[in-house]
Amino acid sequence: MYCDFFGFSEKPFTITPNPHFVFLSTTHRETFARLLYGVDSHAGFIALVGEVGTGKTTMLRTLLGQLDPEKYTSALIFNPCMSGEQLLAAICREYGIETPPAEQNRAGYLHQLNSYLIERNGEGQTVVLVIDEAQNLEPEVLEQVRMISNLETERDKLIQIILAGQPELNGILRRHDLRQLNQRITVRCRLTAMSFDDTEQYINHRLHISGSRIPGIFTPGAMRRIYRFSNGIPRLINVACEQALIMAWTREQVHVTPGIVGEVIAELNGDEHRSRFWSRLLNHFFSGK
């Protein structure tokens, strides 16, 4: 589609978390550094909180991708809507732990996991567990996560656990019945939206990674309108930029102007004229362009 028109090797603004496009803004660099510190210092429990679309999952995948496999063993649980026993089974599965049928229960999974962690510790490896969307965990399951953190030697934690989620996670952790878990979190990270300067650099970064050779595809005025719409949240930036490129392509314009961005924002906000752009796009396809 528009990739050939702009000379992209791939779409620059997909909303799928992709470490290939990672851009560390000021807030992302600070958060990334704290995550690395927590893992390297064997903090035990780390909490990462950020609003929807701020890039938590991309950052977590980038973090795991940068950990030396000779020194670290990691697992990512992305869909935590499960019971405590199901979570244990999923964790064992992610680490490749084979659990005999007779031990496929809560106690059995914990026993197998403990043996695995002791073995990795003896080999000098750090085991990292990341649970994304942790705000969806039931309190009973979070308590099970705390029990996993009890697996330790006299000197060190056997597993480093990162709980990542939306701001609601903070409220859940403050529950009275979860105070033991909350007290164990020694490193807390908060991912916030980007500034305008970082937003501008973010857009240009993704264009560059995609192979753009056209200077200034997004005009300064277009950048400002995208920032006002998105408030510096990467997912909203991606959505606006993607639609703006499509609209510019259908008009055979190599630059995205404030006017184009304004029309896109009206579409995204459910403006009464929202159908006009898609009608033009359908006409564009059926006219054989």
Would you kindly provide a written description of the structure presented here, covering whatever features stand out?
The protein is of the alpha/beta class. The chain has 2 domains: 2-15 and 195-286, no CATH class; 26-191, P-loop containing nucleotide triphosphate hydrolases (Rossmann fold, 3-Layer(aba) Sandwich), CATH 3.40.50. 51% of the residues lie in helices and 11% in strands. The protein is built from 13 helices and 5 strands. It has helices at residues 2-6, 26-40, 56-66, 84-94, 106-122, 139-149, 168-173, 179-184, 196-209, 220-230, 234-250, 258-268, 275-286; strands spanning 45-50, 72-77, 126-131, 159-165, 185-191. It has a 5-stranded parallel beta sheet, with helices on both faces. Strand 3 (126-131), helix 6 (139-149) and strand 4 form a beta-alpha-beta unit. Helix 4 (84-94) runs parallel beside helix 5 (106-122), helix 10 packs across helix 11 (234-250) and helix 11 packs across helix 12. The radius of gyration is 23 Å and the shape is elongated. It starts with a helix and ends with a helix. The relative contact order is 0.16.
